[in-house]
Amino acid sequence: MSKDFDDRNKVTYKANGKKSLVKFKKAKTPYAVGDVAKIDQPLAEIYAEQGIITVMEKDFKPKKEKEENDGKK
Prior knowledge:
The chain is an alpha+beta fold. Helices cover 27% and strands 22% of the residues. Strands 1-2-3 form a 3-stranded antiparallel sheet, with helices on one face.
C-alpha cells in the first residue's frame, strides 16, 4: 500500500444514484485508496467531516472526457 495519497489516488462511490469523486487527503488514514469504494454514503460523509476523505463535485466527468471536449471547441 502506498503512503502517498495525492490527486492520482481517486476513486468513486455512488451517492443517491450520482457518482461522487472521493480522494484521500495526504494525512495518514487507515484506509487504502481502493477501500473508499466499499464505504457507504453515510460513512463517507462522516469521513469527509473528519477530513479523512475529500468529496469533490457530485457530477464530475473523467479528465479524458473533459480534455477531448476542450479540444473540439
